[in-house]
Amino acid sequence: MAVAPSHPRPRQQKRKDWILRSQSSGMERIEAFFHGRGYAMHRHDTYAIGITMGGVQSFQYKKSMRHSLPGNTMALYPDEPHDGQAGSEAGFRYRMLYIEPSLLQDALGGVALPFIEGGISTDPRLFGVVRNLLLHMDDEVEPLQQDDGIFELARAMDAVSGKRPRRHAADFGAAQLAREYIHGALDRTLTLDELAQACGRDRWSLTRDFRSFFGTSPYRYLSMRRLDMARRLMAQGLPLADAAAMSGFADQSHMTRLFTKTYGIAPAHWLRIMRREA
Hints:
Blueprint: E1 18-24, E2 27-34, E3 37-42, E4 47-55, E5 57-61, E6 64-68, E7 73-76, E8 82-86, E9 92-99, H1 101-108, E10 120-121, H2 124-133, H3 143-160, H4 172-183, H5 192-199, H6 203-214, H7 218-235, H8 240-246, H9 252-263, H10 267-273, E11 274-275
Helix pairs in contact: 1-3, 2-3, 4-5, 4-6, 4-7, 7-8, 7-9, 8-9
């Protein structure tokens, strides 16, 4: 009896990685898919708050590997190193909100920033608020709608937070003033002495105050606002060298190093996987 020849099973083609991005004042929303390693270790000065929509989303955070599943809420504290990778061969799809701590501070009124133990919450209150903020990625968020969502997020984060970073007696007004001053100096060299003098505080008290209320140092905050500007310019089609120069960086290499260290992905690769629709 003749045996039918065997045919190799067609190899299943991997889905391409992609990122869909939406930007509004002080808040960035993304939806993304990665089939393997998405990001190297990196850190940014915003909260990273999001939901896993499919697959297993794994990441190193606070010296442990975490695994987020659909129904979980991820809430990563500002300036905490983390990476991102698929926890299964199917890859993972997620939506994430990157929000400046200053927006939460406007609602919290000058208290220590909320901290979610372990970076993952199963609390339905937080999940519902975050899911609403991440609905309809292709729709423009109205200012009043965004303010309502941020207020609800601040209340939910405060309600479900675990232990908080230790606080010292701090001057919220001085920290706010320093933040505003930094926004006016993105295109030039700024020293801590100049910043302290403008705010009426000594250098190290101001540094502690700034970290307490905004989750990062004044220099990191300045660098991140320059990166925000560079990303906007690159997304508009400007060459990397021009985007770097217009954003206050010494040169393209300087911007590329900081971009990769901050986002865990090189700017050229970031541009390649950006897409407008899922």
